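Continuing the batch. This is chain 6 of the set; chains 1 through 5 are on the previous pages. Same settings as before, nothing changed between runs. Recording input and output for traceability.
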Amino acid sequence: QVQLVESGGGLVQAGGSLRLSCAASGRTFSIYAMGWFRQAPGKDREFVAAISRFAVSTYYTDAVKGRFTISRDNAKNTVYLQMASLKPEDTAVYYCTAGAAGTVYPRYDPDYWGQGTQVTVSS
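Output for chain 6:
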């Protein structure tokens, strides 16, 4: 029902910045909360950040709070993850997701997943 395509991944040095983008196919993009998960080598997927349908609320995991910023442009059906002060432990495949409930509090529950984009942070 919702197709998500990530872009913007790549290789960056520790302390650097990178911006991920996620383009959604749906004409009803604004009804969904959007979020990012990541999966590091040998580890399970973990929540990174989420934003409510009209960007009133955002939620971040403690590991990225203060360094990452999630935003969205509903007119362009796009959600972004601006990553700053990157650390080697941020290395992972990052997945864009959509949540039908439209909310991020008390927690974000994704229903649709993109294919992921690789982010590699060198020390």
